[in-house]
Structure formats: structure tokens, C-alpha cells
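ok trying again, last paste got cut off:
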Amino acid sequence: MAVAVAGSVRHQARPASTPDGWAWVTLAVAALAAVPILSVIWTAFTPTLDIWRHLAATVLPDYIWNSFLLAVGVALGTALLGVATAWLVTMHRFPGSRAFEWLLLLPLAMPAYVVAYVYTDLLEYAGAVQVFLRALFGWTTSQDYWFPEIRSLGGAVSLFSLVLYPYVYLVSKAAFIEQNICVLEVSRLLGCTPWQAFRRVALPLARPAVAIGVILALMETLNDLGAVEFFALRTFTVGIFDVWMNMGNAAGASQLALVLLIVIAGLIWAERAARRRRRFHHTSGRYRRLDPQRLSGRAAGVAFIVCALPVLLGFLLPSAVLAWYAVTAWEPGRLPDFLLFAEHSLTLAGIAALAASAFGLVLAYGARAGAPPLAQGAARFVSLGYAVPGAVLALGVMIPLAGLDRTIDAFARAEFGTSTGLLFSGTLFAVSAALTVRFLALAYGTSDAGLSKVTPNIDSAARTLGHGPFSRLKRVHLPIVRGSVLTGALLVFVDSMKELPMTLILRPFNYETLATNVYQFASDELLEECALSALAIVLAGVVPVVLLTRIIRQSRAGEELIPHRQEEQ
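nice, full thing came through this time. structure:
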């Protein structure tokens, strides 16, 4: 009897939040998510042809140099735009500042390749802007005037900065909102001007958040295929696509992909090493409601222009051009094709959203506090999937699936005398799997944030009432984190709608989506033919922008303890 009691006591002494056998499920899901990355590494080190020397002697220097220059330019551009606009709308009040809080996020809904197509169509020699200038000033040839070349490294840096700065704006604004206003007031009492307080106090405190935003922007830049290919820039992603699809050499593409993975890992390591011995935190738990400084006159005008230009150039103007093309070039005969492409995009995005949200919830539940360290580490490893460019993941998914198809086909031929064909590679399964792995980090992050609200006492009470792990998840945790899970599913859905490299590489034969339709027509200088598809992708991305705005607005620490003043008119 004493032994039984002791065993019962030991059983109850386990951490209430330990998810029992779910740790093994977490390891299994993480292992599946790791297969694409591991397959790329394995293929890179077991090449069938020695193409690396040829790449190193011909195109690899261009890939490295162009990718480096593009990354540096985008890092500077997004940091400047994102931090400046976040500081202005958070700490100041000027005409339109309330609206800019969410308007500045709208370019996040605009795929980079769509913006590239629009601005190239507007600004190239035969575009509307140069045609208007030649007619206005009587110029006849390009020798009569100078105009910046849009299809260049500078043009790519500008367009990527306009589209991707919301990543920096998003996290910088959240960091500024969460800062203790008392620290800034102390700096002012010590004689700092507003600019010095921002540069010496607020910006260093927000540095980790800014660095994360810049790294996210760089990941998206290195992942892009449509825009850089349209601008004739030879980057790593273009090289991977070219070596694999045009040269038919998976090993060479894997070697390029491995280099790109090392570069991305180096970016993350460099940021962490730069602040290894520094601490960015507040020593006071006292918070007061933000009291933004009112701007007037010239200062208000400058602030308005600084915030309006990114919104105008990064969202409103491209959207207006797409809407104009969609209306003026519309033909009723295109409707069936558009509906078919939209159905394909919705199908892929829906499958990816459901799978990613389900696996993300499993990972977050299996890696809660108290779970084995191996399970927690495996769940965190999954977040690396978002850091891997789409072309790399497509390669990593295709290699094992193609091997699996060959094995099944060989077995069927030997045993039954028939061919099974492609069961996994070249089907919707391959695209859906790649999208799920790529965006699983989004679903995992939102589910993990939601589960952090569930205290260990709730788990203990449910266990006392006889609920096992699955029952606790279904009847206790899921109702609490339902909003977070749906948020993650929405984010995955929208990102999957506009994902181009993976869809372009892995889609079944003659299977077109909105993104691939835009890519194919715009690459042939026929933007009017795909304007409606591009506009549909943009409109789908506006939904999470509104959601993110609401989340950030409620993130001010201590705000719930302070009586709210009436909103300023």
C-alpha cells in the first residue's frame, strides 16, 4: 500500500504542464519538417556530377556579389523606413498619424514580384512616365535625357525596401510601444534633445526587435525569384532555379542551396553575436500611458510626407495601376481561367493553412514548459523552416519524394508488372508539403503564444478530473487558444497565396495558380493580362494587416492598469 501511495505521489509530482506522450509526437513532426533541409545537405555532399568547379569559375561570384549588395541595400532601406515611420506614429501626433498606424502595414500585402512588374511597366523606356516626359519636353530619344534604370540593382533595392519595410515597422512599433516612457523622460531631464533621446536611449532598447525585422526582410529578399529574375539580377535563388530546372542538375542546385543556407544561418548568428554581452531590458516595472508629442507646422508636414510616401509608392500606386489594368483590359472570356486559377490558389492555401495550424498546435502543445528539453529543442528547430528560401525547400521536398516515387514504381513493376507513375512528386501533395514546412513556424508561433496563457493549474485540474493529454487539448486548451490558432492559419493562408518559387517549381503539370499566372504573363511584358490575378493576391493580403494592427494596438504593457483617456480627436 505504501508503495502504491508513493508511486501515486511521484506521478502527481510531475510538472502539471508536461504533455506526456506528446513529446514523441513533437519529435516526429519536427523530424518530418527537417527532412527537406537534410535532403538538400545530403544531396549537396553526394553529387553525381562535379559541377561545383564549373559554378565557382563562372556564375558563383556573381551570385555571391549580387546577393550581398542586394541584402545590404535592402537592410539599410528597410531599417531606415521602418524605424523612422514607427517612431513617428508611436511617439508623435500629426495630421493622419492615427490612420498611418495601419496604413503603413499595407505594403506587406503586396508581393515583391507584383510591385516589380508594375513599376517596370510604368518606368521603363516605353512606360507611361517616360512617354509622358518625352511628349512634355519634346525629347525624341533616350540620348536627350537621363532617367534612372528601373531594371538594376538600385531599382531592386528600392522596390524591396518599399515592400518589406513593414517587417521592421511592425516589430519596431511594438518595441517602442512596450518601452517604459519613464526612461525617455529621464534622458530628457539629463539634457538630451528629442533626437538624442531617440538615438541614445529608445533605439538601443529597440535594437533586438529592429534586427529581427531586418533579418525577416532579408529572408524574404533572398527567397524572391520573380522580381530579381525580372530585373535580370543573378542571385542565389535564380541560380538554384536555373541549375535545377534548366540544367537538370539537382546536386549542383543543392550545393548552391547549401551555400545560401549557410549565409542565412550566418546572418542570424552575427546578429546574436553582436549583442551577446549586452542586455536590452527595463529595470522598472512601472509604466505610464504614452503621451505622444504633438507636431505642428513644418515638422507635422515633414512627418506626414515621411509616412505617406511609403504607403503611396509601396501600396496605393501599384494597387491603382493593377485596378486600372483589370478594368480597362477586362474581357469576359478570361473569367473562367481566373476562377480556375483562384480555385487552385485557394485549394493549396487552404490545405497548407489547415496542415500548418494542426501541426503547429501539436508542436506547441508537445513542447510546453515541463516537456523534455529534446522536444522543446525540436519544436524550436521547426522555426528554421521560415528562414529557408522557397527554392531551397522546393528542392528539399522534391528529392525525397522523387526517390519515394521511384521506389514504389520499381516495386510495382517487379511485383505486379504495372507502373504507379508519380504519386507524390509532381502532385498537389508536394506543393502542399513544401508550403506547410515553409510556414509551419507562423502557426507554431501563434499557437505557442496562445498556450502561454494556459496556466499549469488548469492542466492539473483537468488531469485530476481524469482527462488524458488528447482530451485536455480538445476540451480545455483548444477553446482557449482557438483565436491564436485561427490567426496562424490566416497568416499561413495569405503567405501561401502569394508564394511563387515553391509553387512554380513543384506544381503539377499545367496546374496554374494566381501567382504563377502573374509570373508567366508579366515575364512576357503582358501585365494587363494578369492584372486581375495580381489584384486578387493583393486583396487577400490586406486581411492579416488589419488583424496585426489590432494586436499591436493592444500590446502596451501596463495599459490595462491605467484608466483610458478619451481618444484624441
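cool. Confidence is low (pLDDT under 50) at residues 1-19, 280-285, 555-569. DSSP finds 23 helices and two strands in the chain.
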